[in-house]
Amino acid sequence: MVGEAEKNLLEGLDPEQRAAVQAPRGPVCVLAGAGTGKTRTITHRIAYLCHTGHVSAGQVLAVTFTNRAAGEMRTRLRALGIPAAQARTFHSAALRQLRYFWPRVVGDAPWDLIEGKLRLVGQAAHKVGAPTEVEVLRDLASEIEWAKASLVSPDDYPDAVRRRHRTPPVPAEQVVAVYQGYEKLKNRAKVLDFDDLLLHTAAVLEEHPQVAEEFHERYRCFVVDEYQDVTPLQQRVLDGWLGQRDDLTVVGDANQTIYSFAGASPRPLLEFTRRFPEASVVRLERDYRSTPQVVTLANQVISAARDRPAGSRLKLIGQRPAGPVPQFHEYDDEPAEAAAVAERIKDLVDAGTPLSEIAVLFRVNAQSEVFEQALTEAGIPYLVRGGERFFERQEVRQAMSVLRMASADAPEGELPDLVRKALERVGLTAEPPTGGSARERWESLLAIVELAEELTATLEGADLPRFVAELETRAAAQHPPTVEGVTLASLHASKGLEWDAVFLIGLVDGTLPIQFADGDEPAIEEERRLLYVGVTRAREHLWLSWSLSRSPGGRRHRRRCRFLYGLIPDDHPTARVVRRDNGHNHSKGPATKLSCRICGRSLVGTVATKLGRCTDCPSDVDEELLSKLRDWRMTRAKELKVPAYVVFTDATLMAIAEQRPTDTAGLVSISGIGAAKLNRFGEDVLALVNNGSAK
């Protein structure tokens, strides 16, 4: 018999949510799409199991990945009358358990927990002669975190990065030396980092049967939220918690896997029914967050994804009343794009949308500066989530200090050249780093150079002292009140959040997908999932925009994000795409879809788009040119000390050898060749195509 409390728990749930709540005790997998009410579902499931006597509240352990999500779960469980159920992050749960068992398994006082790695990583790097600049240390710390989360030891690290096509921040041998030195320093000081909490907890449960038995008596039922983000280390801890039992409920969505760079993997979610053949599987696809118009676009974005196991595919079904259609906008330059976004935000606010219900989302933090400026000029308060304001970033403060010193000497020369030369002292190089915090630092410094170019174009006689004064004025002005404001956030930082109105900005190839992902199919697909996450943050208003150049009057060489093809209505002004006919490129004329230059069919997939032909159509490759391109790529890769695919992927070389572009316009029409690669390699490639030899 179902009692009154149980009936109350089932009220207001849709049929699928009810099935998840009432699923029998044992392995349960809830595939929950964005906005489908997963938190409500799993908290009601916990309460239902407790009220029906399957488990006592004190024997429940629910884990998730952020303090905010764990706090929300605890609040809901209290409201459902289950305050004794534990809801924690993986690390919080492990810390609590480790402190309890430490005296028994180690014997001395518990080791202290360090808040950050940089100091010890810096000491280890210094000892082995590795770079010690702050941005490099951050990347090294992140690399150590990835290795530990992936259960990769120092000795196994070189082989692991080769197998996974991962680009280390420094040579792999140096990472190994820093990793080993860091672990020695940490153990000598008797301190733990956050990864150690999980490693030691797993070891205690695996190596001390009596401790494991006591823990297994304490907790009987486990729930894991956001299971698509679990790392191998977290899965190992979970296995230790479970022992031989199967009372486990997992909730996740493979479409929202966006943390692979940190070791997260959807594999445990995708293989759950293989591990537990008797598991109950429930699919939540009714989207209560977004309008049908937003839901339709989200489904279109993710339907183009490759290599999605059939059983994991979710197609959202909008449950809200109809709303406005998503808007697509193209602009000549970033300031124009930012100004238009600010103007649209003012319209939304005037129509009654609270500032706190509006978000501007971007792929990399360096994109925020021009939007911070536009919002400030429009008098719109904003908050930067998950990152510092542009003028508060360490590299920007260092740059301004260097420019102040340089302006005291008042050297002669063109302002942009003077700024670029001064910023070389704080890390601005001619070519961008491949990724990580070093790339973000480089992007911030480059943005300052572009501000100098903008001032030169708008103010006659602009010199270095005038530019420094302009920077200081901007820095002073961009401190809006820390009250209700528009949220500025990266796509990664937006995960788990939602707003009435979302602006997805800067959607150009080389930024989304990020340049260093090109040529790596899994990385490209993760970039597509980032766009999907961004789209599904919007409840009602959704704006997608991009600009063709960085600054006013700049060369309009950018191309909109490849993931937008097929999403923009054919009759929309921005729906034009490059049409390829007999090797000629056209950017005008009626809107068309990318089509095969050989058979005329619509192109499907990244490789086909790059080649300009269906993958099963015959290739018209110039074999001699392809051989020369490969030899040139090998030489350049050795010079730059990077893997060959970082220069150009095999598919890009094939596309060049087939399409034989004779000028810059033809070269950038090939997917995978953006501004940075054009500047770095364009002259050589065109020389090979036109003359048969690179300079």
From TrEMBL:
EC number: 5.6.2.4
Keyword Hydrolase: yes
Binding residue positions for ATP: A32, G33, A34, G35, T36, G37, K38, T39
Classification via Gene3D superfamilies: 1.10.10.160, HRDC domain, P-loop containing nucleotide triphosphate hydrolases, PCRA, domain 4
Entries under SMART domains matching the protein: HRDC
CDD domains linked to this entry: DEXQc_UvrD, SF1_C_UvrD
Residue intervals of the UvrD-like helicase ATP-binding domain: 11-291
InterPro entries: DExx_box_DNA_helicase_dom_sf, DNA_helicase_UvrD-like_C, DNA_helicase_UvrD/REP, HRDC-like_sf, HRDC_dom, HRDC_dom_sf, P-loop_NTPase, UvrD-like_ATP-bd
Catalytic activities: Couples ATP hydrolysis with the unwinding of duplex DNA by translocating in the 3'-5' direction; ATP + H2O = ADP + phosphate + H(+)
Domain UvrD-like helicase C-terminal, first and last residues per copy: 292-540
All copies of domain HRDC, residue ranges: 619-695
Gene Ontology MF terms in the entry: helicase activity
Entry keywords, A to Z: ATP-binding, Helicase, Hydrolase, Isomerase, Nucleotide-binding
Family according to the record: Belongs to the helicase family. UvrD subfamily.
Name the UniProt record assigns to this protein: DNA 3'-5' helicase
Biological classification of the source: Bacteria, Bacillati, Actinomycetota, Actinomycetes, Pseudonocardiales
